[in-house]
Write a structure and sequence with these properties.
Elements (H helix, E strand, L loop, with lengths): L4 E4 L9 H16 L3 E5 L14 E3 L5 H15 L5 E3 L11 E4 L4 H4 L6 H17 L2 E4 L2 H10 L7 E3 L19 E6 L8 H11 L4 E6 L4 H6 L5 E5 L3 H10 L2 E4 L9 H7 L4 E4 L4 H5 L4 E3 L4 H13 L1 H15 L4 H15 L6
Parallel strand pairs: 1-2, 1-4, 2-3, 4-5, 5-6, 6-7, 8-9, 8-11, 9-10, 11-12, 12-13
Helix pairs in contact: 1-13, 6-11, 9-12
């Protein structure tokens, strides 16, 4: 009897962020490569929201952390401890036959971006996860170096699998803008640096330009919601997000720290020029396809705004470079690499 490849499907019950996006998109391609993949999920899952190609198996009676740390490994034990693939930073802490994707170590580099309880939990859990994983994966050279810095014992056990952009993110259907706006997409965490982005936009003082921010609303939204020409949109569907990318004058990514950073690539795929922070992983992912700025320097951010607003040739060049940059990344290629790693750990030839 062939061994089943089990995926920790808790991510299918969570809100969509970059981490869940990685898991969902790479799994869509992985199930095309293998016919032995089973997604283990808690009973709270809404099956109507899951791709029909996913083979789901509901286990346990709980949800969340209890399901992942107790019910999931308990079930795996009944199946003789098969290989478990964990794609979203977490895994059953004491289950050793697993592959883990650790996207970044934000909780170590920017502890103020997470709650106290979250930070304590991750500081206690991640060393055990790194120690027990048969194979550790991450999403960029930058993130690999960060993990090795904080967890030097795993230096020889990290492989890189890049993110990419889904096919539906494209410039097809792009219309002439009815309004000029700069777009930002992310959650309101300290390291996302939205407070400096908003201050830079206020300093720009251009009544013809708006700023739209997509993502969960937090303190920044509360603080600046009354400012004219700034719109905190909240969470949106992929269809709505694509339209926002397609019609934006430019996309702004002010983050101080990322393991990868999918939104700039999504924007580029939709024909939107990108202005980006010059820190962490961004030069690795975006190369020469964007205008970079110092995310700590508000004046520098403002100058980046003005640069792209005043130079039409540069603006068009950024669009073309964006298309070329996105083409460097592929969910298919990433799934092929993941498939090879899985096969090597269950003693099978590549399928």
């Amino acid at each position: 009897m062939e061994e089943v490849v089990y995926i920790n499907g808790r991510f299918l019950t969570q809100n969509m962020t970059g981490v869940q996006r990685f898991a969902l998109e790479i799994c869509k391609e992985l199930v095309k490569l293998r016919n032995d993949v089973v997604f283990l999920v808690p009973h709270s899952i809404d099956v109507n929201l899951i791709p029909k190609s996913f083979n789901l198996q509901v286990i346990g009676k709980k949800n969340g952390l209890h399901w992942e740390q107790i019910e999931l490994p308990r079930y795996l034990k009944t199946q003789k401890n098969p290989l478990l693939i964990n794609l979203c930073n977490r895994a059953p802490v004491f289950y050793k036959n697993n592959i883990l994707v650790l996207h970044d170590v934000t909780f170590r580099r920017y502890p103020k971006s997470v709650s106290f309880s979250f930070g304590v939990f991750y500081k206690l859990m991640v060393p055990l996860l790194v120690k027990h994983a048969k194979q550790l994966l991450t999403v960029s050279e930058f993130s690999k170096n960060e993990i090795q810095h904080f967890y030097p014992n795993c230096k020889n056990n990290i492989e890189i699998i890049y993110n990419a952009v889904g096919e539906k993110f494209s410039s097809n259907g792009k219309l002439a803008c009815e309004e000029n706006y700069l777009l930002a997409v992310s959650s309101d965490y300290l390291h996302k640096n939205f407070h400096r982005l908003v201050e830079a936009f206020i300093q720009l003082n251009d009544p013809s330009m708006k700023l739209k921010i997509v993502g969960s609303k937090g303190k920044i939204a509360e603080q600046y919601q009354a400012v004219k020409n700034i719109d905190f949109i909240g969470r949106v569907s992929d269809e709505e997000l694509i339209k926002l990318y397609q019609n934006a004058f430019a996309f702004v990514f002010p983050s101080l720290y990322e393991g990868f950073g999918i939104p700039p690539l999504e924007a580029q795929a939709c024909g939107c020029p990108v202005l980006s922070s010059n820190l962490s992983v961004m030069p690795e992912v975006l190369a020469d396809s964007v205008i970079y700025f110092n995310p700590f320097d508000i004046d520098n951010i403002v100058n980046a705004f003005k640069k792209v607003m005043m130079d039409k040739n540069l603006y068009n060049e950024l669009i073309n470079k964006g298309y070329k940059n996105v083409a460097r990344f592929s969910w298919i290629d990433s799934a092929i690499k993941l498939n090879a790693i899985i096969s090597s750990h269950i003693g099978l030839d590549e399928l």
